[in-house]
């Protein structure tokens, strides 16, 4: 589906702790190996972001999600299968990821991507990838590639070519947290 040569270049950057600029299932994002603390620090430097906020991670499947959060409530698993818009769920804890992707309370936002490019990239990489908007902290998120500042473009290790010409406005994902007490989802951003 995607050029293997280009995939190998992207995977090589991720495997060596680099930062990529890539199209996600929502908006253009900065990404890196979510298990590599130094790579996550590079993203924080590019975004000029303080380390008191967590990052959203992308996984390719519910199976990969379970490897990093343990048990996924059946309601959440069902919702992940049927939700139309990209859905990020906040989990109370995560395993096998860099500590600097976590929020101060130890929670983390993870999205099972439905985007074919992201899904294939993550499947080949074999680990979660950070997904954060490609902008400096506090600046508006870029709705498409043409809105990404040159300052951000110059600081990444690789800019993915795929979907650069798409002008369709991207939107951030829906964010929810599972409320264990009531066994329902609390939507934080719709």
Which range best describes the helical content: under 10%, 10-25%, 25-40%, 40-55%, 55-70% or over 70%? 25-40%
CATH fold title: DHBP synthase
Looking at the structure, what is the overall shape? globular
Question: What does the radius of gyration come to?
Answer: 16 Å
N-to-C order of helices and strands: HEEHEHHEEHEHEEE
Distance between the termini: 32 Å
Broad CATH class: Alpha Beta
Strand order of the largest sheet: 7-1-2-6-3-5-4-8-9
Overview features:
190 residues; alpha/beta; DHBP synthase; 6 helices; 29% helix; 22% strand
Q: Can you offer a commentary on this structure?
A:
The chain has 190 residues and is of the alpha/beta class. It has one domain (4-163, 171-189): DHBP synthase (Alpha-Beta Complex), CATH 3.90.870.10. The protein contains 6 helices and 9 strands; from the N terminus they run αββαβααββαβαβββ. The chain has helices at residues 4-15, 37-47, 62-69, 74-82, 116-125, 150-155, and strands spanning 20-23, 28-31, 56-59, 87-91, 108-112, 129-133, 158-159, 174-179, 184-189. The protein has a 9-stranded mixed β-sheet, sandwiched between helices. Strand 8 and strand 9 form a beta hairpin.
């Amino acid at each position: 589906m995607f050029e293997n040569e280009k995939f190998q270049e992207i995977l090589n950057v991720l495997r060596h702790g680099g930062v990529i600029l890539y199209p996600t299932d929502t908006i253009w994002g900065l990404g890196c190996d979510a298990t590599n603390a130094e790579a996550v620090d590079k993203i924080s430097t590019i975004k000029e972001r303080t380390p008191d906020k967590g990052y959203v991670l992308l996984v390719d499947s519910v199976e990969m999600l379970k490897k990093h959060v343990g048990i996924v409530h059946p309601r959440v698993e069902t919702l992940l299968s049927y939700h139309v818009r990209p859905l990020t769920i906040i989990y109370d804890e995560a395993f096998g990821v860099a500590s600097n992707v976590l929020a101060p309370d130890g929670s983390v936002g993870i999205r099972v991507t439905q985007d074919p490019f992201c899904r294939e990239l993550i499947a080949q990489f074999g680990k979660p990838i950070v997904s954060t908007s490609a902008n400096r902290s506090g600046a508006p998120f870029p709705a498409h590639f043409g809105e990404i500042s040159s300052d951000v473009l110059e600081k990444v290790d690789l800019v993915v070519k795929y979907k650069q010409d798409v002008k369709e406005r991207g939107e951030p994902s829906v964010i929810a947290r599972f409320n264990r007490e009531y066994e329902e989802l609390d939507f934080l951003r719709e």
